[in-house]
């Protein structure tokens, strides 16, 4: 059996699915980039990605999504040094509280009624601020993000992989793309957790992410083409195994 | 091993991906040269067609009044700018479906008494009987403003306290020690009839005993200004030609209020006259038409009044980038719609 043998309606449905996956991947990348870059659509540096997943939570936010609200880059470094020194309360009172008041607490306070108020993450007291000084993403976020990512993406990969298996491209390319997709998915999910403990793992996340999305995009594109035309260069010749 | 991977990753990062830790302005206004005469009347002459337009979405508000807020919470402001060898000009236009100029009016009651209408929220500010306003802040020497714009001077109160002091106001404006920000404040009732902005500035004062407006001050003035039209719980002044839609008593035309003003049902709550001195540096005229305010203004590129160097932005280097921010007040004393980040103006 191959995809081309399906009736046109089935091939239209498969093509629509593949196009949706490709579009979805583009918007997913955009969402990830903007979450790292504070709303900007520039390609983030590897350091920024690493900081998001492995860095000190408040420092990562000040460098990333909250960067536009930070008055001076020196403030980010001051907070980093304070956390690495063990978050002494005396330094909080003498230096950190002013940074929080200048750049954070307008929105990050329980009583804030500003448009972008973040009342769920108050930063008005020492106790509140040190809640955000752990490394990596919070467990509450990792737990939700990891399981939904695994469930949703594995389903998509299975559908794409299963459909790919009925295309006429070389078998070794099918094995490679399906394996890459799952390896990327597992690598992504595991890296989010491991980055909390091993900072260097944060640098791997862009590569595992690229592995997953690249493999998915390639599968979707190949299936889409194979529905209607012969995919150039990688299609098995008739009778070839 | 970890170090090796980190080193490889960092090297790849520096080679492939450019660092993005940098401040980017929300928008850039290109100010062009004009050799034409610009009439400040709130109507765009054809010369304005040549000026590039900067469109800015204003969708942030600082607080939610406890007695409700019917003003706009989102609008788009379009800004154009030109200059000649003496002045800088701006033409601003923003959507505001209601023309609001009914600021604390006196209304004659059925029993013949007079009542000044107001509807203040729990912070002591009115959003019902007020006026439309507009504000531009220009950085003078506050470093954070170049990145954050107006957010660099905005400090919201927490639990009724500002800098540890009891304070009912939702927020205050002040700067870092030794720095100032220029504040141009157009007021539909109090300054527009005089064809002016209220030229103000923000400094580092956080002592309400020294200045009840904290860091916010009017520029030095030699005369003029506005004041409440009140004496002994009644209007202090009327005006010979008062009409139902008169919004302000012009100081030069005021006549003492008397109880025999029976034919008048409504008396404006404010008396105004044009500022003289630095506070009146900005000539302006706002015209509301078809759901939009059109505001045209001019100011000398370089001002020379008392303390002009610390109270006014000086456009004395046309190669420099000037950081600014804009906001709009819809019939509101302090609630306003603004943008995050900073805008830049460059001279072309």
Helix/strand layout:
The complex is a heterodimer of chains A (241) and B (348).
Chain A (H helix, E strand, L loop, with lengths): L7 H30 L8 H9 L2 H7 L9 H12 L4 H15 L22 H5 L8 H26 L6 H24 L6 H28 L13
Chain B lengths: L1 H15 L10 E7 L20 E5 L16 E9 L3 E9 L10 E3 L5 E3 L16 E7 L5 H4 L5 E3 L4 E2 L2 E2 L4 E3 L7 E7 L10 E5 L13 E3 L4 E6 L8 E3 L9 E2 L3 E3 L9 E2 L2 E7 L6 E7 L2 E9 L7 H4 L9 E9 L7 E2 L4 E5 L1
Can you walk through the features of this model?
The complex is a heterodimer of chains A (241) and B (348). The two termini of chain A are 14 Å apart. Chain A is an all-alpha fold and 241 residues long. Chain A contains 9 helices and no strands. The longest helix of chain A is centred in the first third of the chain and has 30 residues, at 8-37. In chain A, helix 1 packs antiparallel against helix 9 (201-228), helix 2 (46-54) packs antiparallel against helix 3 (57-63) and helix 4 packs antiparallel against helix 5. Chain A has 2 domains: 3-45 and 137-228, no CATH class; 56-130, no CATH class. Chain B has 348 residues and is mainly β. Chain B has one domain. In chain B, 7% of the residues lie in helices and 35% in strands. Chain B has 3 helices and 25 strands. In chain B, strands 1, 2, 3, 4, 7, 12, 13, 14, 21, 22, 23, 24 and 25 form a 13-stranded mixed sheet that branches. In chain B, strand 21 and strand 22 (292-300) form a beta hairpin. Chain B is globular and about 65 Å long. Residues 1-21 of chain B have low confidence and may be disordered. The chains are: A mainly alpha (241), B mainly beta (348). Chain A binds chain B through residues 37, 40, 42-48, 50, 63, 67-73, 101-103, 105-106, 109, 111-116, 124, 198-200, 203-204, and chain B through 2, 5-6, 9-10, 12-13, 16-21, 23-24, 59-64, 73, 143-144, 147-148, 151-152, 154-156, 158-159, 170-171, 340-341.
């Amino acid at each position: 059996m191959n995809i081309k043998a399906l009736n046109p309606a089935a091939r239209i449905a498969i093509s629509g699915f593949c196009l949706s996956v490709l579009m979805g991947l583009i918007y997913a990348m955009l969402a990830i980039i903007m979450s790292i870059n504070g709303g900007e659509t520039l390609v983030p540096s590897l350091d920024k990605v690493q900081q998001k997943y492995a860095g000190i939570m408040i420092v990562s936010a000040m460098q990333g999504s909250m960067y536009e609200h930070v008055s001076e880059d020196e403030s980010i470094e001051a907070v980093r040094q304070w956390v690495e020194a063990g978050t002494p309360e005396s330094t909080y009172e003498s230096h950190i509280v002013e940074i929080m008041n200048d750049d954070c607490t307008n929105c990050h306070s329980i009583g804030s009624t500003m448009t972008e108020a973040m009342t769920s993450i108050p930063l008005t007291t020492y106790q509140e601020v040190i809640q955000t000084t752990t490394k990596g993403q919070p467990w509450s976020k990792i737990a939700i993000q990891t399981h939904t990512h695994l469930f949703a993406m594995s389903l998509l990969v299975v559908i794409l992989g299963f459909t790919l298996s009925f295309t006429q491209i070389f078998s070794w390319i099918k094995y490679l793309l399906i394996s890459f997709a799952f390896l990327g998915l597992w690598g992504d999910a595991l890296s989010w957790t491991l980055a909390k403990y091993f900072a260097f793992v944060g640098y791997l996340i862009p590569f595992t992410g690229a592995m997953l999305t690249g493999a998915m995009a390639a599968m979707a594109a190949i299936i889409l083409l194979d529905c209607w035309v012969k995919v150039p260069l990688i299609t098995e010749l008739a009778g070839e195994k | 091993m970890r170090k090796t991977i980190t080193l490889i990753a960092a090297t790849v990062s520096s080679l492939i991906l450019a660092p993005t830790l940098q401040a980017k302005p929300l928008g850039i206004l290109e100010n062009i040269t004009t050799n034409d005469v610009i009439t400040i009347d709130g109507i765009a002459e054809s010369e304005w067609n040549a000026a590039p337009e900067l469109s800015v979405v204003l969708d942030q508000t600082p607080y939610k009044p406890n007695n409700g807020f019917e003003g706009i919470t989102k609008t788009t402001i379009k800004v154009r700018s030109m200059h000649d060898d003496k002045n800088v000009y701006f033409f601003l236009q923003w959507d505001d479906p209601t023309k609001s100029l009914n600021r604390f009016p006196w209304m004659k009651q059925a029993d013949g008494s007079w009542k000044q209408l107001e509807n203040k929220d729990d912070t002591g500010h009115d959003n019902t009987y007020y006026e439309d306003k507009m504000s531009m802040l220009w950085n003078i020497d506050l470093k954070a403003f170049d990145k954050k714009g107006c957010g660099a001077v905005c400090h919201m109160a927490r639990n009724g306290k500002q800098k540890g002091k009891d304070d009912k106001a939702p927020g205050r404006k002040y700067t870092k020690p030794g720095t100032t920000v220029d504040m141009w404040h157009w007021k539909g009732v109090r300054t527009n009839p005089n064809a002016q902005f209220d030229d103000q500035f923000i400094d580092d004062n956080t002592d309400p005993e020294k200045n009840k407006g904290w860091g916010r001050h009017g520029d030095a003035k030699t005369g003029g200004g506005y004041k409440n039209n009140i004496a002994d719980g009644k209007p202090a002044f009327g005006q010979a030609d008062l009409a139902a839609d008169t919004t302000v008593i012009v100081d030069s035309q005021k006549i003492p209020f008397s109880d025999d003003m029976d034919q008048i049902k409504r008396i404006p709550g404010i008396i105004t006259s044009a500022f003289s001195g630095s506070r009146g540096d900005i000539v302006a005229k706002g015209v509301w038409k078809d759901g939009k305010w059109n505001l045209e203004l001019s100011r000398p590129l370089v001002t020379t009044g008392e303390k002009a160097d610390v109270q006014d932005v000086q456009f004395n280097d046309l190669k420099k980038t000037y950081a600014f921010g804009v906001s709009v007040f819809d019939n509101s004393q302090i609630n306003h719609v603004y943008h995050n980040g900073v805008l830049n103006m460059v001279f072309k």
